[in-house]
Amino acid sequence: MLLYYITDRTAFPGDEPTRRTRLLEKIAEAASQGIDYIQLREKDLSTRDLESLARETMCILRKLNRENRELRTALLINSRTDVAIASAANGVHLRSNDLSPQEVRTAWNRSCGAGAPARENSPRNPLITVSCHSPQEAARAASNQATLAVFAPLFEKKDARPTGLEALRQACHARIPVLALGGVTLQNAQSCLQAGAAGIAAIRLFQENDIAAIVRQLSS
Question: Which of 21, 110, 153, 179 matches a 20 to 30 Å C-alpha distance to 185?
Answer without folding.
Answer: 21
